[in-house]
Amino acid sequence: MRKNPINKQNVQPIKALEGIFRKTLLYNDALMLCHFFLEKNSEVPIHSHKEHQIGYVIKGKIKFLTENSEFIATEGDSYVFDSNEKHGAFILEESEVIDVFNPSRDDYK
Fold this sequence. Notes:
single chain; mainly beta; Jelly Rolls; eight-stranded antiparallel β-sheet; 8 strands
């Protein structure tokens, strides 16, 4: 999928989990850009994946958990999870984030 430009308004959301909605925007073999809408009190269970993940909080407040720590990210914050790093999240406020994956996630295409 490679169409330039892509506007998130033109992409249908996929319900990834209860209260978690994903729009896969653009990707190639190396990179994938996704937009997530996260409802308050929703959860992303602890998981891992081979892809590196870096993200940016557009709005809201999210408590991220890893095997060794936890942190809260709010509007304007960014975060990173390495390949196979276990992580999850609890959504403290209605939130929107942008995530980039390297390489692209086949399960999000």
